Amino acid sequence: MAAQALSGIINAKVPAHMKPHAILINIARSDVVDEAALVDALAMGLRALANPDDLAQGRSPRAVRS
């Protein structure tokens, strides 16, 4: 299925290649963005906004503040 093929397509490599002023906005299913990679990128200082509709891992980006 296409949905399974897209799961986690926004992974740890994507934030590493983003310009410092870039913003990632996901209006698709939340599983398109790798949750662990998002939380790790926020912890590393990526300036971003995250408001996922659900988190499978139970980790909240709100808990990560730089």
TrEMBL record:
Stored InterPro entries: D-isomer_DH_NAD-bd, NAD(P)-bd_dom_sf
Cross-referenced Pfam families: 2-Hacid_dh_C
Sequence ranges assigned to domain D-isomer specific 2-hydroxyacid dehydrogenase NAD-binding in this UniProt record: 7-53
Highest taxon, organism lineage: Bacteria
Gene3D superfamilies, per the entry: NAD(P)-binding Rossmann-like Domain (3.40.50.720)
MF GO annotations: NAD binding
Name of the protein in its database record: Phosphoglycerate dehydrogenase-like enzyme
Native organism: Novosphingobium sediminicola
